[in-house]
Amino acid sequence: MRCEAPVNAKRVYRVMRVHDLLLHRRPARPRIERRHDGKVAVPTSNQRWCSDGFEFRCNNGEPLRVTFALDCCDREAMSWAATTGGHSGDVVRDVMLAAVEHRFGNVRKAPVQIEWLSDNGSGYIADKTRAFASDIGLKPLTTPVCSPQSNGMAESFVKTMKRDYVAFMPKPDAVTAVRNLAVAFEHYNDKHPHSALKYRSPREFRRRTDSSTLV
Known about the structure:
Elements: H1 9-18, E1 48-57, E2 63-71, E3 77-83, H2 89-104, E4 114-118, H3 122-125, H4 127-135, E5 138-142, H5 152-166, H6 174-191, H7 202-214
Parallel strand pairs: 1-4, 4-5
Antiparallel strand pairs: 1-2, 2-3
């Protein structure tokens, strides 16, 4: 039996590369920046905002999907949007812009760069969303699954909204549910106490913080 000489794989690879016989690699997408400091909360408002979504069904079976933006210091739910569709990039961008306008008025861009923390949902990592965020003064950051820098603050907010508001509010259909969600978000911001805020509501905390800076 005749023994063939072993094939030199590296030499074959070099020959194929010289003659352009290799498959072309897909260009790598720019890496999305992430933080791994293990802490979501920040000491001052308008330093980091986080965003996420939740959904529930109305009594008539209509699904309602809610996307929101939360300040990681004072916990105020600055903006939100509800739709019977998905958590699309258009909805995320609307929530981004509404949050900037809520905090800074009718401006084209936030006066300081603010971190925008979210998961890796398609609406958040879309190139159009990330470019829009940069245009209005937000710096998109994402959180890997099961990392210490998970979006725990947003997840806690979701539990609060579902447990204390959605579970009890009338929601026979999507139109009624959206109307009652507006009341729920307003009550959360004005009245809901947080242990991290010394049992003040988000807006009470902001009022006291603002008044202390004027002293």
